[in-house]
Specification:
mainly alpha; about 75% helix; globular
Amino acid sequence: MKDLGTIGRFLFGLPFVVFGVFHFINTELISGGVPSYLPGDGAFWVWLTGAVFVLAGAGIVLGKKVGALAELLALQLVVLVLLIHLPNAEANMVQLLKDVALIGGALMLAARHSDEDRPWKKWMKRG
């Protein structure tokens, strides 16, 4: 069973590394999809999401901070669904549903690694 988990982590994380690299390579093309109501340059948001994709995907593949990175990835995907895909759902329902499924996968992976330390859990307990 452990081998299946390792294969699953690899198959789940690697595409996010590729997505992130594509964000850096195709910044101009992708920044056209950034909503105009977001502050700043669209390229900034493309680079930020690309960096999160690379960081989360690489950590998941390498088995480092898997739970925390899966939670970060799920959060980013929720934001993308709400800000990008949901307003355009009629035009591109496939992207919306794909990202919703990926959110589910990221949350399942985070739950599987729930015993890991997460800095924000300590901060939340202090409040």
